[in-house]
């Protein structure tokens, strides 16, 4: 498992690219707006998750866009999203972790992800973070 720098570390672009390459994430272009935020220290906190699954919500820093999903490693998933690997969400990068829930099985995480994507789930998230 890769130990990612903490939010408080002064991470440069070259260090982040090294992390991405070691993680097996290959990127051809790194947008300048992400570079500015990386230099400002917005990468996410270092965590050590073991055998857990997550349902998560990532929020775009520049837009009112929320991405809901599930994964096994939140740190890697956040880096993947912020690297622009997925063309459909590339206009909305960079993302930060907005909300997460832990589960012991992938099926539970998928079920919760589907809930977040439903109208009731969107109301739940809105109510939780508006107050």
Key descriptive features of the protein:
131 residues, disordered N terminus, 3-stranded antiparallel β-sheet, 5 helices
Describe this structure in words.
This protein is of the alpha+beta class and 131 residues long. A hairpin with a 5-residue loop joins strand 1 and strand 2 (66-71). The chain contains five helices and three strands, in the order ααββαβαα. 21% of the residues are buried. The protein has a three-stranded antiparallel beta sheet. The chain is globular, with a radius of gyration of 15 Å. The longest helix is centred in the last third of the chain and has 12 residues, at 106-117.
In short:
By secondary structure, the chain is an alpha+beta fold. Helices cover 39% and strands 18% of the residues. It is built from five helices and three strands, in the order ααββαβαα.
Q: Describe the sheet with the most strands.
A: 3 strands, antiparallel
Radius of gyration equals: 15 Å
Strand percent estimate: 15-25%
How many runs of DSSP E, i.e. beta strands?
3
Alpha-beta content class: alpha+beta
Query: How many individual helices?
Result: 5
Distance between the termini: 36 Å
Mean pLDDT: 76
Series of H and E elements? HHEEHEHH
Strand order of the largest sheet: 2-1-3
What spatial form do the alpha-carbon principal axes imply?
Answer: globular
Unreliable stretches covering 5 or more consecutive residues: 1-11, 24-30, 38-49
| Helix percent band | 25-40%
Layout of strands and helices, then pairs:
Blueprint: H1 13-22, H2 32-39, E1 53-60, E2 66-71, H3 74-82, E3 95-103, H4 106-117, H5 119-130
Antiparallel strand pairs: 1-2, 1-3
Helix pairs in contact: 4-5
């Amino acid at each position: 498992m890769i130990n990612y720098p903490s939010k408080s570390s002064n991470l440069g672009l070259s260090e982040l690219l090294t992390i991405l390459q070691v993680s097996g994430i290959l990127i051809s272009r790194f947008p300048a707006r992400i570079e500015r935020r990386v230099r400002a220290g917005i990468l996410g906190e270092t965590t050590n998750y073991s055998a857990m699954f997550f349902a998560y919500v990532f929020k775009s820093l520049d837009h009112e866009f929320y991405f809901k999903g599930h994964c096994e490693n939140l740190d890697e998933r956040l880096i993947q999203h912020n690297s622009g690997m997925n063309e459909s969400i590339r206009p909305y990068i960079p993302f930060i972790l907005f909300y997460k829930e832990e589960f012991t099985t992938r099926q539970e995480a998928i079920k919760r992800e589907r809930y977040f994507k439903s109208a009731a789930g969107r109301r739940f998230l809105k109510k939780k973070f508006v107050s």
